[in-house]
């Protein structure tokens, strides 16, 4: 079997599984409530409180971190493959990110304030020069993002400027998103972007850049091709065990006790916890994928990962309709556990639809549009009868 294709298949599976975490946490923390970090579970039932605890400790933030690292891996793959076929691969990749920025901006302003595409596109543009940088330079900048970023944000003038907590905002958002018309929600979201969301970006962008750089380093390490080697499996086993143990340990401590004092130190520990936990998850999944039995089951997530762009946008279209006032108005009416259950069912449905779609087409519809706009010409959408699996196509 072609090792290049194996690597892509494994990345598709990891991306699909990461999207499961992103979906369930988006439903629990951003669709059913109008603002991140607000969990109205204090007076909910025991099941909701238990699910909120499990989600906070084991999923929240970790799936997004893994997804960000995989985005960095994707940048490396695209640049590596495009460099072999195009005279100016860097310009092509920059255009690909600009197109993603256009999609993300439309998604953010027209549909949902929880968009990550615009953020990924902008951070990806900052990350482009490091595709050609030496490994030690990439590592140094990644460390600086994780270490210096939190303490820079704790500097009082900057901390005040980035403070995203605005009195009364949650109540206003609950009312407008839950009962407003599309026009009312659109006006509120545009105002919210400039008053609140840009401040959130200031908190998370250094960490996200660090995550993408770590993804670049992971690709350079050959982790997706060397997992079959026994010695490398031992390394992955240590990363998996240590990352999950350390990440879970601190996450449980943070959920049960008062957070660490000091804004900078708390932010640093939180970011590193997300990183080591996500690395542990990723290493554990790679080890499982080395087993034929586990790979057969986990491969069910591959079609979702190959169509991650389409599936992510579809989730927004469906769940904003369900939760917002111009749709069914479920906002604030669904408990944590129920939202997770809805997410699991919908994820399964997306898996079925993605599998059926990819039997006939080489890309998801939004992946096809993104690819066509990147190359400046319409790309073939239907699969040729003799074509290899869609996961092999990355550039």
From TrEMBL:
Q: Which UniProt keywords apply?
A: Membrane, Transmembrane, Transmembrane helix
Transmembrane helix as UniProt keyword: yes
Entries under InterPro entries matching the protein: Bact_Transport_Assoc (IPR052529), DUF418 (IPR007349)
Question: Where in the numbering of this chain does the DUF418 domain appear?
Answer: 232-376
Q: Which residues cross the membrane?
A: 12-31, 51-78, 98-131, 235-256, 268-289, 309-328, 334-358
Return the protein name: DUF418 domain-containing protein
What organism is listed for this UniProt entry?
Answer: Pendulispora rubella
């Amino acid at each position: 079997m072609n090792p290049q294709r194996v690597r892509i298949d494994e990345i598709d599976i990891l991306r699909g599984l990461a999207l499961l975490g992103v979906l369930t946490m988006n439903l629990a923390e951003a669709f059913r409530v109008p603002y991140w970090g607000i969990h109205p579970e204090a007076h909910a039932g025991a099941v909701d409180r238990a699910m909120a605890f499990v989600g906070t400790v084991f999923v929240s933030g970790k799936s997004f971190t893994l997804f960000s690292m995989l985005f960095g891996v994707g940048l490396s793959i695209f640049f590596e493959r495009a460099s072999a076929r195009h005279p100016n691969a860097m310009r092509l990749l920059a255009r690909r990110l600009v197109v993603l920025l256009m999609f993300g901006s439309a998604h953010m302003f027209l549909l949902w304030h929880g968009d990550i595409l615009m953020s990924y596109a902008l951070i990806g543009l900052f990350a482009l020069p490091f595709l050609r940088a030496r490994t030690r330079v990439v590592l140094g900048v990644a460390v600086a993002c994780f270490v210096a970023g939190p303490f820079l944000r704790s500097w009082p003038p900057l901390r005040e400027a980035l403070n995203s907590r605005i009195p009364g905002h949650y109540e206003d958002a609950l009312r407008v998103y839950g009962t407003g018309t599309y026009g009312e929600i659109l006006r509120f979201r545009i105002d919210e972007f400039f008053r609140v969301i840009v401040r959130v970006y200031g908190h998370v962008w250094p960490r996200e850049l660090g995550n993408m750089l770590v993804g670049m380093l992971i690709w350079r390490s050959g982790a997706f091709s060397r997992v079959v080697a026994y010695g490398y499996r031992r390394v992955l086993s240590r990363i998996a065990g240590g990352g999950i143990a350390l990440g879970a340990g601190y996450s449980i401590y943070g959920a049960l006790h008062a957070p660490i004092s000091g804004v900078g130190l708390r932010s640093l520990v939180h970011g590193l916890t997300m990183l080591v936990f996500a690395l542990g998850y990723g290493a554990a999944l790679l080890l499982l994928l080395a087993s034929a039995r586990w790979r057969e089951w986990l491969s069910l997530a591959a079609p979702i990962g190959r169509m991650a762009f389409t599936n992510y946008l579809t989730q927004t279209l469906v769940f904003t309709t369900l939760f917002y006032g111009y749709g069914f108005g479920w906002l604030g009416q669904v408990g944590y556990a129920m939202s997770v259950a809805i997410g699991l069912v919908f994820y399964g449905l997306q898996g079925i639809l993605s599998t059926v779609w990819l039997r006939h087409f080489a890309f998801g519809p939004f992946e096809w549009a993104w690819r066509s706009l990147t190359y400046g010409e319409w790309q073939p959408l239907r699969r040729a009868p003799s074509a290899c699996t869609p996961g092999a196509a990355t550039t």
